[in-house]
């Protein structure tokens, strides 16, 4: 499974509508309204790279109100347990 994080810049007046439309796209598992330089963050999960292009380029970018996107492809997922183990390496309890 390929996971991508899509940063979405949207027209301010359409942020809620853009978020809902993006959330309804097949392959998008979650959409977050966030603070900072970007307006929305979408989590995309698809089996293959070719499908990622279809979701982002063919669907997300064509939602009315989307001004720009930046896609980050995840290499590896770390759970809280993984991170706790990594930071505990070499430490004696």
UniProtKB/TrEMBL annotation:
UniProt GO MF annotations? sequence-specific DNA binding
Q: Return the InterPro entries for the record.
A: Dimeric_a/b-barrel, Tscrpt_reg_AsnC/Lrp_C
Recorded GO CC terms: cytosol
| PANTHER family, A to Z | LEUCINE-RESPONSIVE REGULATORY PROTEIN (PTHR30154), TRANSCRIPTIONAL REGULATOR AZLB (PTHR30154:SF34)
What is this protein called in UniProt?
AsnC family protein
Provide the GO biological process annotations: response to amino acid
All residue ranges annotated as the Transcription regulator AsnC/Lrp ligand binding domain in the record: 6-76
Superkingdom of the organism of origin: Bacteria
